[in-house]
Design a protein that fits this description.
Layout (H helix, E strand, L loop, with lengths): L3 H22 L3 E9 L2 E9 L2 E9 L8 H4 L2 H17 L7 E9 L7 E8 L4
Parallel strand pairs: 3-4
Antiparallel strand pairs: 1-2, 2-3, 4-5
Length: 125
C-alpha cells in the first residue's frame, strides 16, 4: 500500500508537469523546475516577453478555490519571494526583467484544468 506522502508527492509532480505544459503551450519558456535554495523552493521559473515568472503550483483537486489562501498564506509567499531574490542574485542576467509571482492551480472542480492567476501576490514595500 502506498504511503500518503508518496501520493502527495506524485500528485505534486503530475500537477507541476501539467502546469509546465500549460505554460509552454501559452508561449512561456520554462527555465527551471523545482529551483531550490536553503530558503525554499520555486516550483517553476519561466520567461515570456521579458517577464520573469516565479510560479507556485497547487493541485487542489478536492478543495474549493477559497483554500488557496490557507495553502499559500503570507508566510509561504514570503518564502517564495526570498527564494526568488536568491535566484536573482545567482542569475544576474535577469536583473532587468520585470518580475511576477503567479499561481497555477491544477484540477479544481468547475475551473479550467489549469487556472492561471497572474500577479497572484507581490512583496509589500
Amino acid at each position: 500500500m502506498a504511503d500518503k506522502s508518496d501520493n502527495t508527492i506524485q500528485k505534486g509532480k503530475k500537477g507541476e508537469k501539467k502546469a509546465e505544459d500549460y505554460l509552454k503551450e501559452h508561449g512561456y519558456t520554462v527555465l527551471y523546475r523545482n529551483w531550490r535554495t536553503r530558503r525554499g523552493e520555486i516550483d517553476i521559473i519561466a520567461e515570456k516577453d521579458g517577464v520573469l515568472v516565479f510560479a507556485e503550483v497547487k493541485a487542489l483537486s478536492c478543495s474549493p478555490i477559497d483554500t488557496l489562501e490557507r495553502v499559500l498564506g503570507s508566510i509561504k509567499q514570503k518564502k517564495i519571494i526570498e527564494t526568488a531574490k536568491c535566484f536573482l542574485l545567482e542569475n544576474r542576467q535577469y536583473n532587468n526583467s520585470y518580475i511576477r509571482f503567479d499561481v497555477l492551480i491544477i484540477d479544481v472542480p468547475y475551473y479550467p484544468p489549469v487556472y492561471h492567476i497572474k500577479n497572484a501576490f507581490s512583496e509589500c514595500v
